[in-house]
Amino acid sequence: MTHDPTLAPNAADVEAAQAVDAVESVVPVIPFVIPAVGAAMIFLLAFIAVYVG
To answer: What SS3 class is residue 18?
Structure first.
């Protein structure tokens, strides 16, 4: 039996070709997430300091 190039590709081949790396999908939002988390942490630390003091 010979390979027929007109056949549709295997589902596993299509999935492997379209696979997206999780790290590469997160990298574009890092410049927005880090300052937002930093601001939230500063706010929480200030709130704790006022509450304790």
So the answer is: coil
Q: Which two tokens stand for residue 25?
A: 């999908």
Alpha carbon distance, N-terminus to C-terminus of the chain? 81
Does pTM surpass 0.70?
Answer: no
Tokens at 46, concatenated: 């200030």
**Average pLDDT of the residues in 15-25:** 77
DSSP code string of the chain: ----TTSPPPHHHHHHHT---HHHHHGGGHHHHHHHHHHHHHHHHHHHHHHH-
